[in-house]
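Thread: quick sanity check before group meeting

JM: Hey all, I'm pulling together slides for Thursday and realized we never actually wrote out the predicted structure for the chain we discussed last week. Dropping the sequence here so it's in one place. If anyone has concerns about the input, flag it before I start.
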Amino acid sequence: MLHNSFFLAVIDWLNNNYWWPAILFLAALFFVVKIILIKPQTKPNKSHYSNIDSVIMNFGGVDNIVSISLEGNRLKCTLKEIGLTNLEGFKEIGAKGVFVTGRNVKMILPYDMEDVVRQINSQINGGKQ
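JM (edit): ok, ran it. Output follows.
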Protein backbone atom coordinates (compact mmCIF):
# COMPACT_ATOMS: atom_id res chain seq x y z
CA MET A 1 0.00 0.00 0.00
CA LEU A 2 2.94 2.32 0.67
CA HIS A 3 4.05 1.86 -2.89
CA ASN A 4 0.67 2.87 -4.27
CA SER A 5 0.29 5.85 -1.96
CA PHE A 6 3.68 7.23 -3.02
CA PHE A 7 2.68 7.26 -6.69
CA LEU A 8 -0.67 8.81 -5.85
CA ALA A 9 1.09 11.55 -3.85
CA VAL A 10 3.44 12.26 -6.79
CA ILE A 11 0.54 12.41 -9.27
CA ASP A 12 -1.40 14.68 -6.89
CA TRP A 13 1.62 17.00 -6.57
CA LEU A 14 2.05 17.13 -10.39
CA ASN A 15 -1.63 17.97 -10.82
CA ASN A 16 -1.41 20.83 -8.30
CA ASN A 17 1.80 22.35 -9.73
CA TYR A 18 1.36 23.47 -13.32
CA TRP A 19 4.82 25.03 -13.73
CA TRP A 20 6.71 21.74 -14.28
CA PRO A 21 5.50 21.20 -17.89
CA ALA A 22 6.83 24.66 -18.79
CA ILE A 23 10.26 23.83 -17.37
CA LEU A 24 10.21 20.46 -19.13
CA PHE A 25 9.29 22.19 -22.41
CA LEU A 26 12.10 24.75 -22.04
CA ALA A 27 14.63 22.02 -21.28
CA ALA A 28 13.55 20.03 -24.35
CA LEU A 29 13.70 23.19 -26.47
CA PHE A 30 17.22 23.91 -25.23
CA PHE A 31 18.41 20.42 -26.18
CA VAL A 32 16.78 20.61 -29.61
CA VAL A 33 18.48 23.92 -30.33
CA LYS A 34 21.80 22.73 -28.93
CA ILE A 35 21.91 19.37 -30.69
CA ILE A 36 20.04 19.84 -33.94
CA LEU A 37 20.23 23.48 -34.93
CA ILE A 38 23.77 24.40 -33.92
CA LYS A 39 26.20 22.78 -36.33
CA PRO A 40 29.26 21.23 -34.74
CA GLN A 41 32.53 22.93 -35.54
CA THR A 42 34.39 21.04 -38.22
CA LYS A 43 38.11 20.92 -38.71
CA PRO A 44 39.44 22.81 -41.69
CA ASN A 45 39.87 20.77 -44.83
CA LYS A 46 43.53 19.91 -45.13
CA SER A 47 43.18 17.76 -48.21
CA HIS A 48 45.08 20.28 -50.33
CA TYR A 49 48.21 22.24 -49.53
CA SER A 50 48.53 25.32 -51.70
CA ASN A 51 51.92 26.66 -50.58
CA ILE A 52 54.21 24.16 -52.32
CA ASP A 53 56.96 26.79 -52.44
CA SER A 54 57.45 26.58 -48.65
CA VAL A 55 57.81 22.78 -48.90
CA ILE A 56 60.40 23.20 -51.67
CA MET A 57 62.27 25.88 -49.71
CA ASN A 58 62.35 23.60 -46.65
CA PHE A 59 64.01 20.97 -48.86
CA GLY A 60 66.67 23.54 -49.79
CA GLY A 61 65.19 24.63 -53.10
CA VAL A 62 64.17 22.86 -56.28
CA ASP A 63 67.82 22.41 -57.29
CA ASN A 64 68.50 20.40 -54.13
CA ILE A 65 65.74 17.83 -54.83
CA VAL A 66 66.89 14.74 -56.74
CA SER A 67 63.56 12.89 -56.56
CA ILE A 68 60.34 12.89 -54.59
CA SER A 69 57.80 10.10 -54.32
CA LEU A 70 55.30 8.40 -52.05
CA GLU A 71 56.40 5.40 -50.05
CA GLY A 72 53.28 3.95 -48.51
CA ASN A 73 51.71 6.85 -46.63
CA ARG A 74 55.00 8.75 -46.33
CA LEU A 75 56.55 11.37 -48.53
CA LYS A 76 60.09 10.36 -49.52
CA CYS A 77 62.52 12.92 -50.91
CA THR A 78 66.10 12.24 -52.01
CA LEU A 79 68.29 15.35 -51.78
CA LYS A 80 71.66 16.38 -53.16
CA GLU A 81 72.74 18.13 -49.92
CA ILE A 82 70.97 17.18 -46.66
CA GLY A 83 72.48 20.18 -44.84
CA LEU A 84 70.24 22.60 -46.77
CA THR A 85 67.08 21.04 -45.33
CA ASN A 86 65.00 23.00 -42.77
CA LEU A 87 63.44 20.27 -40.62
CA GLU A 88 61.84 22.77 -38.22
CA GLY A 89 60.09 24.36 -41.20
CA PHE A 90 58.40 21.04 -41.96
CA LYS A 91 57.15 20.77 -38.39
CA GLU A 92 55.65 24.27 -38.71
CA ILE A 93 53.54 23.20 -41.72
CA GLY A 94 52.26 20.12 -39.86
CA ALA A 95 54.69 17.33 -40.81
CA LYS A 96 54.71 14.38 -38.46
CA GLY A 97 57.36 11.74 -38.12
CA VAL A 98 60.20 13.42 -40.01
CA PHE A 99 62.98 10.87 -40.56
CA VAL A 100 66.38 11.60 -42.10
CA THR A 101 68.39 8.66 -43.44
CA GLY A 102 71.47 9.52 -45.47
CA ARG A 103 70.25 11.86 -48.19
CA ASN A 104 66.61 10.79 -47.81
CA VAL A 105 63.94 12.63 -45.86
CA LYS A 106 60.68 10.83 -45.06
CA MET A 107 57.63 12.40 -43.42
CA ILE A 108 53.88 12.35 -43.16
CA LEU A 109 52.06 15.55 -44.11
CA PRO A 110 48.42 16.23 -43.19
CA TYR A 111 47.65 17.07 -46.84
CA ASP A 112 46.97 15.25 -50.09
CA MET A 113 50.52 14.02 -50.54
CA GLU A 114 49.90 12.78 -54.08
CA ASP A 115 49.13 16.37 -55.06
CA VAL A 116 52.26 17.63 -53.27
CA VAL A 117 54.43 15.04 -55.07
CA ARG A 118 52.84 15.86 -58.43
CA GLN A 119 53.36 19.60 -58.03
CA ILE A 120 56.97 19.27 -56.85
CA ASN A 121 57.81 16.77 -59.62
CA SER A 122 56.34 19.24 -62.08
CA GLN A 123 58.75 21.92 -60.83
CA ILE A 124 61.71 19.51 -60.81
CA ASN A 125 61.00 18.52 -64.41
CA GLY A 126 60.66 22.14 -65.54
CA GLY A 127 56.87 22.19 -65.71
CA LYS A 128 56.53 18.79 -67.44
CA GLN A 129 54.50 16.10 -65.75
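AS: nice. The CA atoms of residues 47 and 111 lie 5 Å apart. The two ends are 87 Å apart (CA to CA).
JM: adding both to the slides.
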